[in-house]
Amino acid sequence: MRTERKLFCGNRVVFGDEPNSHVCPVCLGLPGALPTTNPRAVELAIRTALALDCTVHLISVWERKNYFYPDLPKGYQITQFEMPLATGGIMKYDGSEGEAMVRIRRAHMEEDAGKSIHDRIPMGTAVDLNRAGTPLVEIVTEPDLRSPADARAFLTTLKQILEYADVSDCNMEEGSLRVDANVSLRPAGASELGAKTEIKNVNSFSGVERALEIEIARQAEVLDHGGTVDQETLLWDDHKGQLRSMRSKEDSHDYRYFPDPDLPPLVLTSSLVEAARDCLPELPRSRRDRFITDYGLSCYDAGVLTQTIASGDYFESVVKASAEPKSAANWVMGPVQALMNERCEDLSVFRVSARALAELIELVADGTVSDTAAKKVLAVVAEDGGSPSSVIEEHGLAQVRDNSQLEQWVQAVIEAHPDEVSRYQGGEKRLIGFLVGQVMRRSSGTADPRRVNAILMKELI
Amino acid sequence: MTTLAKAAHAVGAIQELEGGRTPLNAFLAVAHPESLVVANPEGLLAGIPLAVKDNLATTGFDTTCGSKVLEGYRSPYESTVVRRAKAAGAVVVGKTNLDEFAMGSSTENSAYGPTLNPHDRSRVPGGSSGGSAAAVAAGLVPMALGSDTGGSVRQPAAFCGIVGIKPTYGRVSRYGLVAYASSLDQVGTLGRTVTDAARLLQVVSGYDERDATSDERPVPDLLGAVDQGVEGLVVGVPDEYLPDGLDPALRVLVNTALGELEEAGAQIRRVSLPHTRYAIPCYYVLAPAEASSNLSRYDGVRYGVRCAEADLISMYQATRSQGLGIEVKRRIMLGTYALSAGYYDEYYGTAQRARRMITEDFRSVFDDGVDVLFTPTSPTPAFKIGERMDDPIEMYLSDVFTVTANLAGIPGISVPIGSIRGLPVGGQVLAPWWQEDRMLAIAGVLETRLQGAEV
Amino acid sequence: MSVGREHAERIAVLARLHFGAEELDRLTEELNHILQHVEALKNLEDGPAAVHSEEGAPQAWQRGSTRGSEAEVPDTLDQGLNEVGPDWAEGFFVVPPLPGIHKDEGA
Fold this sequence. Notes:
Oligomer: heterotrimer
Structural class of chain A: alpha+beta
Helix content of chain A: 40-55%
Radius of gyration of chain B: 21 Å
Radius of gyration of chain A: 30 Å
Order of helices and strands of chain B: HEEHEHEHEEHHEHEHHHHEHHEEH
Shape of chain A: elongated
Distance between the termini of chain A: 70 Å
Helix content of chain B: 25-40%
Number of helices of chain A: 16
Largest sheet of chain B: 11 strands, mixed
Number of strands of chain A: 15
């Protein structure tokens, strides 16, 4: 979760800093240290649960999950087991066969472990506890997903929702989103689920999809030959594109959960929950649907524009600054996005304000500037700021509509290209494009191409 | 005497006794005379030499918890109670011996040897805060900090003829108290007199934001309470704490004490706490269960002793097997079993039910007009060293009168009420939650009228 | 309910403890002896459980929540971790490798 501090102590949550530089007695598990709960983490967790339409329980209980591992300082993880923060949610997403739904079984809070690095020190494992104690929300779905592609689509939507809710960076490479996938097969029509395997260590959505495809194929092979699938944990190796079994010798899975005696049960008030609900923005799907009805956009366009909360906000601001929705959509999805990509910027630093873009769109609509020239204007404003109209003036980018000037250029082009002219008049009508282009060049792109086209056609009959 | 003089004198006396021919082995570490400092010459504890049980984290001394696994461990942070004591002017003169990780009733489970009872060196001082009790009883320090999970402050106080207080659960911060059983542990105070023990408790009590189980209620005037008298107080005597088989000499002392309270204006009433018989089985499921989890951190990874091995699992096993003593291992095994899959409901679950009922017993009695309860602290005075080491159950039964207060979370105090065959005997006063003042008033009267055991 | 030797071995593994054969036998016996006494709990009547009674519980338990603010000042460490840790290199705690497989178990 995107909190400033850890779940049970005041250390900062930091990614990539000097090892063991953000630790204290509590997250080190020193003798005598005690946990205290971070209220902001609770708030974000509630928001997460609400964004997934879960029931938030006013009473939930911290429990200890006991096991030994070098990056688990206390020898137990503080988590929620029997009485989690939230249960029973639902999430819609666009699956391979249209709109689909996944039920959310539960969402609970827990603390993260530190990091064990196996290849840094010869003959040893290096342990960095900066990450130990970072607040996490674990979201568990019901087994409602029916294909690897759906799994990927679900994750994409989940990430989008969590970004909208501003609860996490959801970055798989950085580890702020982690996925464990459970998969099983059963004969068509059977109601009982087959034995499942758990896939861990994937670090991208495409990895999840690939790993699932491979495992499904493997299970199918086993079952087709009359064998049985062993319940086990498999680790994904992204380099090799393979899954390998994580068989460990001891029966390590008796976690001996019991309520943590160092922490009171988490008791929330309904006003706290409602306050968290109020902090939720309009969620992606709702916003997308609203864009379709309010602005007449296609489902695809509305989807692209609501990809991030920032792009949706930007688009709406452009429309509210009186741009026509369809144009606004095209501009935002097209030239604006392309320019931002080129400049490696996102909307948080992009200098073309919604108002400026709306102005530019107006100026194209009323013919003041051509479409091509407008893109140049966009680039200038993105670099230097300023208003589109002043940029047009300063750079002389206004579209020339004056017929006498246009006729002059057209004449000059006709005289310069007698070959093409006679070929055109001989039947090669496509050459009009070439001739218009020549006029555009002579006018440094400022001629109104439609008028030029009309004049040329008139001249060359 | 200058403010540092008392502490310097104490250090000298400790070194002389512990370095001499008949040491008590009460101290595991003693301050260097040059390092003594009084942080607050105006404080409530200004200049007072203080002994601290070695399961409380200190930065100026190692914290071994009486275990090999923490031999040489210097805590990088200090426990709240020691911080507060120092801020009030106390001078920590040393860390005292204890049963390893506070698990025991005799201080014989220390990896650093047993502590002897100053009244009779062939006997135990009680446990697990035996070192602290012996230090106070021997006159080396007037006050000491201990910890009480099942009686570990009250019982040694009784065995050594001094005063020992366990506050209400949540009254005193546990931040820096090395956890044994988190829902039962409390820091307790020991002193030569009720006033001394109360003074120390006054200083260390109160909410600590670093301990989520500490309470925000204001601390009453504990010092003032000692002299407030007991006129009109109803003292309940639970049948279950004076069973038929009780030592008749002990019964006499209890009755004498009750007689004094009556003369001082209190009313005596017989009561019953019917679930008392479940207390020991309940405690010996819950405490080891929590302990088995609390002690998982002693794995040789980040601090403490490590037994080098080629692979991780072997390292864990060797470190813990060699570093932890037999009683600790016994309780870890017991606790792990009680929490394990398939056994949780039967053991841990049932013990939690018993705990609630024991607590309800106290609540109904207190709701019924009883102000405090009075019982013997322990069924016997100090036993001989080695006497109970063969049978863990025998050892566990010495806690039979003290564990209920930890299970319910109510405060308790042990005051000397006489002696049996030359050995000190303690009487225990239990009060309702948050009413340490009432219990101190009773203790104060008993102390004045009974003169206590000779130190 | 009594614990067999094999079961005791499994418990020891869970607790990362290792015992010699004789020691384990003795321990198993002691455990069973203690458990016999714990059996007394079987006679307890039915009823609800509670970790802390409402009245006696610290107020925090009734308020039931979190520390006052997100930004609690972490307690400072008086000495470097390199002095505390049994094996320390390049800023990391170092432990011997797991037998066999390398894994990143994660939370």
